[in-house]
Amino acid sequence: MRIDPRLDDFLEAQGLGRHRPETAKELNGRNANFLVVTTTDTPVFVKRIATGSRDAAERHAACVAFEELRREDPAIQRTLGTAPLLASDADLGFLAYVALPGSTSLAELGRQPKDDADADEGDAGTRDPEDFAEDLGRLLAAVHALDPAGVPPRAEAPRLPPIQPLDHLTWESYQNLTAPCLRIWNRLQNDPDAAGTLRALRADEAYAVEQHPVAIHGDVRLDQFLLDREGRLRLIDLEEFRLGDPARDVGSMVGEWLHRATLDLVGEQDAVAAVADLELTHDEVVANGAAALDRRRPVIQRFFEAYRTSCGPDAAWVDDPAFVDRVTRFAGWHMFDRLIAVAEHTSRVSALHWAAAGIGRQALLAPRAAAPALGLPDHSDQRKAAA
């Protein structure tokens, strides 16, 4: 394991001491990530955003700005847990956070065998992600309540869902994508309704941001939430923090619950491998998927109601039918996003994952009809009245 030799200079300049080499542990991620204990006996999680990339400075600035804004408001700070930022260096790309030993991501929690999870006495008293639905709603509301004036600008809109591949793939993408990924993009390129709706979603999102920009996380997934030893949720990975449409965050979270409804058909353990080997007919997938969604709908309802209540009267967007439409469509896109993620790591995509993407497609194309089925507010009467 090779750690950047400039790390010790960075840590010492912040009064944290030098790292003890025998304690260093490398972690996975797009950046160089390490857990170390310093000579001052301080456990530190260190992330280095490689300088020189097009948006490296923006991603570093986003992480710093989030922590500064969170600390400015004591009420938000009490609700919005994270791994506190100890020190940063924009020139070197270093970010040093308080380490959270013993923490578990909600994604990992969801993959635990239920019997083992029940036997494992956690301080939170619960061992399933759905038990934290209300907490997740309140936490996202706190993010969206941060002062937008303090959010640094970004040169480009969020990367996903991508629009350019709906027309054609670049030669570089064509060479690097797996065969299952190529099939997915081929289907989307030959599905004018889905492709057109994704373009419309990005346009509607841009208009919403122009009218009322809100601080958003920008990359919400269950693995971005850590459960610490005390049972408190902590939001991490703030590199996509930006001014944006809150429907992106809320829709991604709804999409996570919708995706988990799909995994209910095979269990949580080694789900990718299990799904790849599972053969179900279309009718079986639809019937079983409907039952699984019935079980998850109350979770989405609790999540959204906690979010709506926590946002308060100043967040007028929450009761706007157009907001719920965008939430539903972002949830639908999330199913395609997870389909693509599976296709990057397997030789074939199962009928189950194609069917899950089909559910996402329906949410994209008919959000007003899909919303109540997902546990979101029913605004279908407004559409009929407008007609």
Automatic annotation (TrEMBL):
Highest taxon of source: Bacteria
Boundaries of every Aminoglycoside phosphotransferase domain copy: 30-259
Pfam families named among the record's database cross-references: APH
Chain spans, region Disordered: 107-131
Protein name: Class V lanthionine synthetase subunit LxmK
